Every structure is written in structure tokens, then in C-alpha cells.
Amino acid sequence: MSGSLQLTVGDLKQYVYCPRIAFYRHVVPVEAKATPKMEAGRRAESSRGADSARGNGTST
Q: How far is CA 6 from CA 14, 20, 22, in A?
């Protein structure tokens, strides 16, 4: 092999749940189609990040 495989804790968690998830993410990268809920979450996270960078975010 030419490169090393670096796994995150999330990768291990997904592997325990379903080994195919890790396989498709690292061995055969398949681009996941973003759902409307995923897009809404990204928008919410990016706006939260912008608010916290300005000091207006809430602490959780």
C-alpha cells in the first residue's frame, strides 16, 4: 500500500454499527447525496459558527 489509513473515532463507531459504511467511505469513496435535512443542518452550523466567531453564540 502506498498510504496509511487514518481512522477517526467516528469511523470506528460507524464500523461497529455497519462495516459497509467504513468500506464505502475509505476503500471505495462514494459521494453521498445531500438530503434537504443535511443542507439545513449545514446552514444552521455555519450560521452558528459565524455567530460564535463574533461572540454572539450561546454556550452549550
A: 14, 17, 12
Residue 59 CA: distances (Å) to CA of 20, 39, 49, 54? 36, 23, 12, 13
Q: Any alpha helices (H) in 1-60, and if so which ranges?
A: 9-17, 19-22, 36-53
For the chain, domain boundaries: 9-53
pLDDT tens track, the chain, 60 positions: 457 778 889 989 999 999 998 888 888 877 878 899 999 999 999 998 766 655 555 555
Question: Residue 35 in contact with residue 43, Cβ under 8 Å?
Answer: no
Work out whether the CA dihedral 21, 24, 27, 32 comes out positive or negative: negative
